[in-house]
Amino acid sequence: MHVLGARPNFVKAAPVVRGLADLGVRQGIVHTGQHYDALMSDVFFADLGLPEPIANLGVGSGSHAKQTAALLVGLEEVVLKESPDLVVVYGDVNSTLAAILVCAKLGVPTAHVEAGLRSFDRGMPEEVNRVVTDALADVLFATSPDALSHLANEGVDPAKVHLVGNPMIDSLFSALPKLDPEPVRARLGLPEAYAVATLHRPANVDDPESARELVDAVLAVSRQIPVVVPLHPRGRTRLAEAGLVSGETMTIIDPLGYVDFLSLVRGAKLVVTDSGGVQEETTMLGVPCLTVRPNTERPITITHGTNRLVTPALLPAAAEKALADGAATPSGELPPLWDGAAGPRIARVIASWLKGDNLSPAAQGVPQQMG
Length: 371
Prior knowledge:
This protein is of the alpha/beta class. It is built from 16 helices and 13 strands. Helix 3 packs across helix 4 (94-106). The longest helix is centred in the first third of the chain and has 19 residues, at 64-82. It starts with a strand and ends in a 16-residue tail after the last helix. 51% of the residues are buried.
């Protein structure tokens, strides 16, 4: 059983679901409804070719406590009803945390895709979710070598851990032939040169003063190059109150589907974000990325990619430099195993686990534990 709650989960799960289907593994998707409107979830199922969920909990939004409580109740009912042999969770959203807790209490084995990422900032709700999930998971799939080191430092049994690459990159590679910026740009009335911004992190949008500082910085960027902002429902009101509204050089739009969004990113001269997955996607597409956060759980996008961390105060100057430098070239080699084959690797480990076979990384044809 795969538990998915937010759009990045769908992107990571699609290659795993396909890989398991190719191996004849019976599976089902539970959509928790953490991203609850059609633009945030249904279109992603269609774009990624995911099968219909066996359950949709429809938990919607709310505070962390209310949302997680509703997820705990709903997921417990589904897990008890379906009695899965293994529950697979993805990333670091509240749905992932709730699923891992429910399964730990019920004695149901779990696997975590994207294990070991750390920002070392417990002020981020996602960081808490990551640490708890990895502490309880039975099988852990790491996307990068630094994740292996973090898990080792936390005392996770190396026999549980597999370096498999990044399934989000599998989805990107599969979508590449369909990623055409021109139709999306024309539909939105954007000029040939534009930037994309995605903004939703609590630290950036929940506090009025922080939101205002961020909006002022993005508006300054828009005076250099027109900016389009597919705006997540989370924080939309707060950002609008801070001045993030459509104007001559600023275009605010609803969230886009997977193919449309990546098409927009592919054609952008610059991306400004506080999202995790976008840092990875811009690295592979060679688009300059400025992440407005003090840290990242994906440092490999800096050492091997096109990403740079900036503060709101430094964002306009960093954008000016990035635009002057032009298209980004990833520094050195791309991240190891970001080759479009992570989904099949994960599927092979899961299929062997279900059969009770040897789960050592060497037996699965993936690199040994590192660091």
